[in-house]
Fold this sequence. Notes:
By secondary structure, the chain is mostly helical. It has helices spanning 15-30, 40-59, 79-84, 99-111, 114-127, 132-146, 152-165, 169-186, 188-191, 194-203, 205-229, 233-269, 277-298, 303-323, 345-381, 389-425, 433-453, 459-483, 497-514, 520-523. Helix 1 crosses helix 2 and helix 14 (303-323) packs across helix 15.
Amino acid sequence: LEPLFYNPEIDSSRTSEYRRFRLLTDEISANPAGIKMGNSEVLGPLMYFIDYYARYNLFAEFFPLPPEPGEPGGKWRKIGESLVGTEPLDSKQKAEIEPARFISTVQSLVATPDNEVDEKITSIRQNLKMDPTALFAAQYAEAVKLRKGIDPIIEHYETLEEAYRDNDATTFNQTVDQIRSLVQQRAPTDTSTIAFEKTYNGYEPFYRSSIGYLWVFLIASASWLVSVYSKSEKDKIGASNTLLNCAYMLTGLVLIAHTFGLAGRMYIEGRPPVTNLYSSALFISWGAVLLCFLTEKFLRLGIASAMGSLIGFGGLIVAHNLSIDSSLNPSGDTMEMMRAVLDSNFWLATHVVTITIGYSTTFLAGFLGIAYVFAMLFRLLSKSSRKGKELDKTMVSMIFGITCFSLFFSLVGTVLGGIWADQSWGRFWGWDAKENGALLIVIWNAILLHARWAGIAKVRGLSALAIFGNVVTAWSWFGTNMLGVGLHSYGFMDKAFVPLMAFIGSQVAIIGIAYLPAFFSLFGSRKEQTA
C-alpha cells in the first residue's frame, strides 16, 4: 500500500495519490478476473482505499465539486464522493457482509459491459435495499467501473493551494477564473446569485432592521410618556398621536427591510423562508411584526407597534447569537447545505412555515400579556385611580384573537408534521420530544381559549396564561433541541440552557408581578373585572 499513498517528499500534491488510485481501478476494470478470494495484491489496496476515501465523506463538510452536466439530482459533491461514491449503509453493517458472495458480485459487476453496468447497479440499489452484501458490492463496482479519472476542479484547487503558498498572485487569479468557468458550465443556476449575494451581505438587512425596531420601541414608549405627562390636553393628544404615527410608519419601513432580508435568503438558497434554527428566528420575529403592523392600523394605541418591535428586535438578536453558536453553526454559514432529512421544499413551505407562524403568534400573545402587566404596574406606581376598562377590553380582544390564530396554525402545522413524519419515517406520531413540544403549544392555546370562554380567566388571568405560553413555546423551540434524543435530534444544541432558563424565569416573574396583592386594588371585586 505504501507506494500508493501521498508522499510529500516526491509528490507535488495529493492529486498524485488520486491518480495512482485511478490507475489501480483501471487495471482492475481491464482484468476483472483478478477479483477473487485470496488475491490480496488486488483486493487489499482496492478495499483499503475505497474504505479510506469513504471515510472522507463522513467527516468532510466541504462540497467543492459541482454536478456533471445532465447528472440527476444536480447535487454538489465531496472529494471522496467523486472518487468512490457514497456508502449505501452505515459502516457498521459491513460486518454483515458475506465475503464470498461479496467478491463474486463485485467481479460480476466489474465484468459487465460499460453500457450495462450502471443499470445493474441501480437495480441492486432499488431492489436489494436490505442486503448489505449486494449494496456494498455495488458501491465498490461503481468506484472501479463508473468513477473515471479525476475531477479537474480538484486539480485546480491543488494549484490554487500551491499558488497561495508560493504567493503567486498571477497563477492564483488565473486558477480562480478557471474554477469559476468550470462551475458556471456545470452548475449555471448555482452561480447566478453570486453577485446578488455579495450585495445582499454588504447591505446587512437584519442588522439594519434590529436598529430600526429599537427606534420604533423608543418612539412608541415616548408617545405614552407624552400622553401621561403633558399638561395641556391639546398638546397631549397632538404630540402623542404624532409619535404614534411616526412609530407606525417606521415599523412599515423596517418591516420592508426585514422582508427584503427574508426574500433575499429565499432567492439565494432557492428554498422557503425557514430552513434551520437561525432562519426560524428571522421568520418568527418577522411574522409577529407583520401581525402587529396590521393590528396597529386599526388600533393606533402604540401597543402593537411597541410589542412588535420588541419581538422583532429580540428575534433578530436571537438569530445573531444562533449564527455565532459553534455547536449549531461551526462553519459560520447561515445558508449551509440542507440536511437530508429536511430536503423537501414542499414540506418546508407547508409544515415548517405553518408551525413557525404558530410559534410567532403565540409569542405575540404572550408579549401583549406582558405589555398589559406593565401597564397595570405603571398605573399602580403612578397611583392612578382609573380602572382602564377600555384598555382591558382592547387587550382581551387582541390576546384572544391572536391566540385563535396561533391555535389554528399550531394545530395544522402539527398535523402536517405528522404526515411528513409518516412519509419519511413510516409513522405519523412517535412521542418524539419535538412532536411533544408542538402538541404542548396546541394544548396550551386551547386551554387559554377555553378558560376565556368559560369565564374562568378574566383579563389578568388571560394575560398570565398568554405569558406562560411564551415558556411553552420557548421550550418547544429550543428546549427540545437540548435533549438530543429522538428522530428530530438533528437540531441538537448544547448552549441554550442558561439563556432558556433565564427567559423562563423572567416570564414566571412577570406572572408573579401580575398577582402581587397590591394589584387587586386595580381590579376591584370579581364582579367589577372586565369579562
